[in-house]
Amino acid sequence: MEQILIIEDDKNIRETLKDILELSGYNILTANNGKEGYHAILTNYPDLVLCDVNMPELDGFELLGAINQRLKEKIIPPFLFLTARVEKIDIRHGMSLGADDYILKPFNNNEVLKIIRLRLDARKKLLQMGEGNKLKENAESFNKLALPCADGLILVHFDKIIKCQADRAYCCFYLVDGSKILVSKPMSAFETILINKQFLKIHKSTIINPQFIDKYIRGKNGSLLLSDGSNVPVSQLNKEELLRVLNHVA
After folding, report:
1. Residue 107 contacts by C-beta under 8 Å, 6 or more apart in sequence?
2. Would you tell me how many other CB atoms lie within 10 Å of the CB of residue 250?
3. Within-domain flag for 143
4. Is 150 contained in some domain?
């Protein structure tokens, strides 16, 4: 039986979620605040965590940051935030810490069950692929990028990536076969490794693989025509570096 930890300081919400999930066949643990939740995660290592953002002791963001530090390279259980916050900056902050999703209060019971089932299935697929943490550690050595998504962990060869574009708190990878992969992490999570693989950041929201540049179109800042037919703008901040690379290639 899959185990879910609910970390929520509001007793009514906590008990309502507990009843809903137990009726759906899950084994439920509860914690009243972030500090209790921290110890419950380390003690029980649940299959999924439902966590409020605004709590005493440790808030949800501080809790997830502390768990990241403690577990480091281990696979952290899917972490879903419960919150009334809807500001983009809050969503981006949570996603940058590794949150898998947000559930907004007041929530719809069926929607909560659907999201939980989706995340649990994705975790199961990831674990079935082998030791997921080792897979992530070794992915780069195979010249592939490990992308966490709804279907688990996907390994994509760097040479198959045309571009990566930010999509609010998420990002999207566009591949040479015409497919795209939406990743529930910000583009910044992959920026360093892509730059180290000679990708170019041409805009705050776009990183491209230079081997797929078809044409540079001049203008105030310019834009790039890529081999997939897309036209992506170049920022003034990144224009000089792009031109240097293009001139070197030429």
Report:
1. 82
2. 5
3. no
4. no
How long a stretch of residues is the chain?
250
- Do 18 and 115 belong together in one domain? yes
| Angle (nearest 5°) at CA 23 between 100 and 56 | 50
Q: What is the pTM of this model?
A: 0.55
The enclosing domain of 239 has a CATH number of 2.40.50.1020
User: What are phi and psi for residue 26, nearest 5 degrees?
Assistant: -95, 150
Torsion angles phi and psi, residue 61, rounded to 5: -65, -45
> Cα-flanking dihedrals φ and ψ of residue 143, to 5°?
60, 35
Domain count for the chain, please give it. 2
Helix pair angle (109-128, 11-23), 10° resolution = 60
Question: One digit per residue, pLDDT tens: the chain, 250 residues?
Answer: 899 999 999 999 999 999 999 999 999 999 999 999 999 998 888 999 999 999 988 899 899 888 888 876 566 788 999 988 667 677 777 777 778 888 888 889 998 999 999 888 877 776 665 544 444 554 444 577 878 766 566 778 888 999 999 988 889 999 998 999 998 888 988 898 898 888 999 899 999 998 898 888 887 778 899 999 999 998 888 777 777 766 644 4
Is residue 58 included in any domain, yes or no?
Answer: yes
Q: What are phi and psi of 41, to 5 degrees?
A: -65, -45
